[in-house]
Amino acid sequence: MSRAAEAVAGDAVELTVDKQVGEGYGLARHEGRVVFVSGAVPGERVRAELTQVKKHLAYARTTDVLQPSPHRVADRRLSWGAAGIGGIEFAHVDLPHSRELKAEAAAEQLSRLGGIEGTGLRIAAAPSEHAAEAADPGAAATTAGTAWRTRVQLAVDADGTPGMRAAGSHTVIPVDTVPLAVPVLDDLGLHTLRLPRLERIELTASHASGAVVLHTRPGTELDPRAVESVAARLGEQDGQWSLLHRSGQPVRRGGRGGGPAMRNRGGAAVRNRGGSSRLEVLAGTGEVTERLHLDTPGGPLGRDFRLRADGFWQVHVDAAAVLAGAVVEAAAGASRVLDLYCGAGLLACAVGAAHEVPVTGLEGAPEAIAAARANSADLDADFAVARIDRLSELPAADVIVLDPPRAGAGRAVTDALTASGAERIVYVSCDAGTFARDARALTDSGFTLASCRGFDLFPLTAHAEFVSVFTR
Ligand SMILES: C[S@@+](CC[C@H](N)C(=O)[O-])C[C@H]1O[C@@H](n2cnc3c(N)ncnc32)[C@H](O)[C@@H]1O
């Protein structure tokens, strides 16, 4: 008796994409398996190559579109000379529809992992994209959503050519333009330089200032020509630009001085600053200044935040204002606010200033806490270094704000939130999956999810931000 040959990676298959799920995948079925397919739009019939095959599921990438969705547009990466780069999962979808697909994927995760139904979740456009789409409806298929990143990392290959990593691979693809970056980072032109001995560069653009961090490969010295060529580009820019170097020492595992291992926004493990490798300021102050503008019920609020050039700040050019605005609104009526994972103090300072209430902020990175203290000198605010997941008790507050990294808060933190005296939790999340898991823990222990708002603060990628309020 003959049997159909078992599917293997490399096989070409035809798929009908049923719906959108997390990480930018469309979901299809093929010969008894669930297939997660990239580069497709729900409703489409595509030909795809299987990239990974397991017993009950497989991964695939679209190679040809047989019946296109009306929401399919020309892959924007082609116009950037950046075909195949990863991290821009909706490069081929019109921008408003990409938001609907993210909302569909997040609702599925909230239901499956969090047992949460009927939130009516929408993902709202950030003001810049909203304006671009309103000014020119055609922009939704082309330029809207393509110039928002104030923080960008370029990988550098062994020959010193900068670029972006290919999807699912370490291969560096040279680019004609810095994808998704705010114009000033593209204008620097660092992606056109040869940068020997570097393994990556971090680019930061903030209010009237910016910074570039050069990361050398482990065991190599900085190449003076690379430093000179980058410094020359920074010298041509308006505003204050800093140039920094982080040596590529291998990260120490355990031992003293290593600092707590944490997850950054993208989920990659990072060492607490200062423990693993040295950050050296080659030019400028080594700091950037961010400016927050908010319209609050009490009137306009403007604040400057200084932070270290490599310190955490919300990435989308509108993100700080959008998230701070939503958190200020959600914290209305609070008498004392605790901000967990507070970074340089953005949310704590916005809430403290808008509602004139005392705030406490806790965060693992000492440099961020030093910045938060300086940024809150005019407020009734108290900031301290702490590993949130190791706290046995939380400081007293009636409203607790938390904005954990992509890995979410986890059981120890949700238990501490439950044990606290807080009546309201304002949870800011950049990952619907880990948020859904934490939401289930909170609702299982007596909290009710009162609201969940989505914001497209990572346009054209699979990610979004969520601001949710739990009450009890
Ligand atoms: C998404 S950022 C939020 C920062 C801040 N809310 C803001 O908007 O600028 C998460 C922060 O959590 C910190 N962090 C990550 N893991 C931590 C942990 N286990 N304990 C304390 N802080 C942590 C990171 O250093 C980072 O500053």
TrEMBL record:
One of its GO terms (molecular function) is methyltransferase activity. It comes from the Bacteria. Residues 247-273 are annotated as: Disordered. The active site is at C430. Residues 6-64 form the TRAM domain. GO terms for biological process: methylation. S-adenosyl-L-methionine binds at Q314, Y341, E363, D403. Residues 261-273 have a biased composition (Low complexity). Keywords: Methyltransferase, S-adenosyl-L-methionine, Transferase. It holds the Pfam family MTS. Belongs to the class I-like SAM-binding methyltransferase superfamily. RNA M5U methyltransferase family. This is Class I SAM-dependent RNA methyltransferase. It comes from Brevibacterium gallinarum.
